[in-house]
Amino acid sequence: MRSKRKLCYHDSIIRDTAGIKIGEALQDMWTVIYIAPTARVADMIQRKLTEEGFMIKCRPVNMSKQQFEILVPSGELEEVQEVLNLILHP
User: Fold this and answer.
1) CA–CA separation, 57 vs 28, rounded Å?
2) Terminal CA-to-CA distance of the chain, rounded, Å?
3) Which domains, ranges and CATH numbers included, belong to the chain?
């Protein structure tokens, strides 16, 4: 299990809970890992991945279909894929 370091997102700047700036450039280094069919599914995935210590972004893709992209830092893609697979297929 990953460390439980909490991160806060604000205006494209990522800071840890102590307020230390981690980086503005990270906003360009995110990869879509999953497209959730509903807001409820997106919230569940985001909550569980965050509990595992991953940085997660969620954004609407198609509001008429209520789809949401789940994004993760590119460098954590493989690790998140393993955990996401366990979440989706317990």
Assistant:
1) 12
2) 16
3) 29-88 (3.30.70)
The label of the residue with tokens 């997106």 reads 42
In the predicted structure, residue 87 carries a pLDDT above the cut 80: yes
CA 34 to chain centre: 10
For 16-73, the pLDDT digits (tens) are 555 555 555 545 689 999 999 999 999 999 999 999 999 999 999 977 888 999 999 9
Can you give the chain as a three-state secondary structure string?
Answer: CCCCCCEEEECCEEEECCCCEEECHHHHCEEEEEEECCHHHHHHHHHHHHHCCCCCEEEEEECCCCEEEEEEEHHHHHHHHHHHHHHHCC
CB 55 within 8 A of CB 73: yes
- 57-62: long-range contacts (C-beta < 8 A, 24 or more apart)? 57/9, 57/30, 61/35
Separation between Cα atoms, residue 31 and residue 77, nearest integer Å:
7
